[in-house]
Automatic annotation (TrEMBL):
It comes from the Bacteria. Residues 69-189 form the Methyltransferase domain. Keywords: Methyltransferase, S-adenosyl-L-methionine, Transferase. GO terms for biological process: methylation. PANTHER family: METHYLTRANSFERASE DOMAIN-CONTAINING PROTEIN (PTHR13610:SF11). One of its GO terms (molecular function) is protein-lysine N-methyltransferase activity. This is SAM-dependent methyltransferase.
Amino acid sequence: MIDQRILLLLITGVSAVFGVTGSTLTGDFEVDAQVPIPVKKSQENQADVPYVPTPQRVVNTMLELAKVNSNDVVYDLGSGDGRIPITAVQKYNARRAVGVEINPRLVQQSRNNAQKAEVSDRVEFRQQDLFQTNLTDATVVTLYLLPDINLKLRPKLLKELKPGTRIVSHRFNMGKWKPQQVAQVDNKYVYLWIVPKNVPANLDD
């Protein structure tokens, strides 16, 4: 017969693995909400940035600061549940949007959210390391990463993005690269940069 303490441990372990799912309304579109589950990840799927959703009002401010319009291709690096790419197409009429996310569960959740919002034909989600993503066709890039990741990413952005491309970051700046504009919403900061034609030498490292 199984000891009651062992049985309790087994039940607790199973509950932790499966978690709970539900649905939550962000204000502009409905997304699947899932309770975070602490799961060991393989090295190749390990995210450098913990998933923290960007509030919808901040999402709107980011896209408005970048002046997203029907000519734009928006890339969101670390796209989480997909709310920025979906909003870019659904509310700001971006021509196309791409979300890049390393967590396969979040990628699937994003695809489900895009389908519910009826924008799957213009929104793509890639399970990919953002440092391996080709950004050359982007006209707008959005970020909610970490300070050290922003700095590490800066040379790639300046190398691959065309002059005039807008970069918008929630909360964290780009070190020596001073933003063209800063906005504040709900005590949160949003930074805007525009890729220059000639990159200053002190930014190219």
